[in-house]
Structures are given as structure tokens and as C-alpha cells.
Amino acid sequence: MDINDIRQAQDRVRPYVRRTPFERSDSLSKRLGTNVYVKYELFQKTGSFKVRGAFNKMLSLSAEELAKGVVAVSGGNHAQAVAYAASVLGADAVIVMPESTPRNYVDATRGYGATVDLRPTIAAAFETVKAYQDKGRAFLHPFDDPLIMAGQGTLGLEIMDELPEATDVVVSIGGGGLAGGVSTAVKSAKPEIRVWGVETLGADAMAQALAAGQPVTLPAITSIAKTLGAPAVSDATLELAQKYFESVTVVNDQEAVAALQYIAERLKVITEPAASCTLAAAERLRGNFGRDSNVVLILCGGNVAIADVCGYLSQFTG
User: Fold this and answer.
1) What is the CATH number that goes with domain 3-50+145-317?
2) HEC readout, the chain
3) How does pLDDT run across 186-200, given as a tens digit for each residue?
């Protein structure tokens, strides 16, 4: 996956995805003592960036392949993205989900017309996929696919088009598809730009992989940022992190919730903890930014139930 793949993806998915809002935030700029810009990807169709990769992958399939249907594994935003893209393109979709998936994600995925197959764990869900592939369905991996990563990288092209003078980009990491695609896009446009990865404690597969020099499988996802909950990153996404990231900052759930609350009160949007953690990380990284820096925070998703937000606030702020 390289910049040419991302440019091709942009041409391919343009009719199907939104160019999401991008603007400078006075509140965040004052808070961090630098120029802070926000990419509001939570306003993307289905509420997250995932449709970019889902459409790029499905639009790359032949008519015969699409006619046989698609299958995906997800306990989060990838599920809704694949379900939506399949409905638009007229393909039948099965989404295999762990039973721990929040109800609002399951309902939304079914609402887009997909069949949901619930399995006890995410590991069991991945094991189930093989049977669907044997029946001819195309598998859409949530991150370990160059077409998926290239689709997510189109977000990076939009950032550089909006703000060529960007100096820093702060991006969340789940399995690493978004971060890998975005870092490839922005670094190709401007090699000196710095990319800062973010994870939450208990969903920190990339930080552990970087420390070990190879993918590490987490025994469990204990963070509330479930959409960052890939049990392990892939060799491909780890390689991109090693090549392009300045570092990966691991924040705790309490920091992510405090950032979520601040974003809701000042920016008037409700993000997932998987997105608000970028502000929490930027707080820790502020010593790396000068007054003339141009720092971009990617708010990658907003698919969180209000009841869950209330629970987070009660748990972490009293």
C-alpha cells in the first residue's frame, strides 16, 4: 500500500463517502497553546471513517465476487461500514460479531440490512469466517488489507488538501489500518510532518508490538474504548508504525473520558473514547508543539450510546 493506492482509492470512493468537516478550534488551541485543527470524521456516514476502506475494498471486487456476498468480523464500526457499503452496492453481507458487542452497534448493523452472526468471543468470530469464505463470500478484514488501509488513507489526503502547513497529526490506533493509511498519505505529501499514534491502556496492541518488535496478542480488551479493541496488530500495520510514527502514546480511560467531556462541552460533539483519546494524548504531547505548530486531531468516530457516556462520566468523574 502506497500513496498511489490511496489516490486511486480516493477516486474510487469519492461518490460514496463524505468529505468531512475540518476546522481550527479556538478552544483547543488556547488549551494546548498551539494551533489545533479538528477533522470531524465522526460525521462520516455510519459515524466513523470505516466506510472509506469498506467501499474501496468492495468496489475493487468483481461483479461476480460481489454477487456471492461479503463477510466481515467486527465488534464496532467496521461492522456498520461493511453493512452500509454492501447495502449501497447491492451485496449480501454477514457480519460476525462477539457477543460482548454493545447493543447499539448490533442494532445499527442490522439496520443497514446485514445478517449478524453472534459468537462467544472475537477469536471465535474470526474462526467462523472461514466457513463463510468456503461458501464464496469475500472477506473484508477490519484492517489487515492494503485496500482497506488505502481507503482509510483518503482521510489523510483530505487533511493535507485542507491544511498543507500541518506539522503534526494525532491519530487513534485500533488494528492500525487508519493510522497506517493516514500516515502514508500525509508523510508522502510532506515528509517532515509528524504522526503521533494514540491508544488506551487495555487496548494497546500497537504500543506492545512496537516494544516487542513484533505483533503481540492481548489476553483481553479491558479498556472502555472498545472500538480500539483489536486483539493484535498485523505485520503490515506494525511496519507502517515503525516507519512513520514519532511514538504511540497510551492514555488511560479516565483521561479519554475527561477529554470526551471537554469536547462535548466546547466543540458540541459527542465522540467515542476511541476518538477523544487523541485530545488526551495531545495534552501529554504538548511539550512537542510550538506556538506556530499546526496540530490536527482526528475525531475518528462517534458511535457511542448516550447511556454509556453517562456511565463513563459517573465512573470516572463522580
Assistant:
1) 3.40.50.1100
2) CCHHHHHHHHHHHCCCCCCCCEEECHHHHHHHCCEEEEEEHHHCHHHECHHHHHHHHHHCCCHHHHHCCEEEECCCHHHHHHHHHHHHHCCCEEEEEECCCCHHHHHHHHHCCCEEEEECCHHHHHHHHHHHHHCCCEEECCCCCHHHHHHHHHHHHHHHHHCCCCCEEEEECCCCHHHHHHHHHHHHHCCCCEEEEEEECCCCHHHHHHHHCCCCCCCCCCCCCHHHCCCCCCHHHHHHHHHHEEEEEEECHHHHHHHHHHHHHHCCCCCCHHHHHHHHHHHHHHHHCCCCCEEEEEECECCCCHHHHHHHHHHHHC
3) 999 999 999 999 999
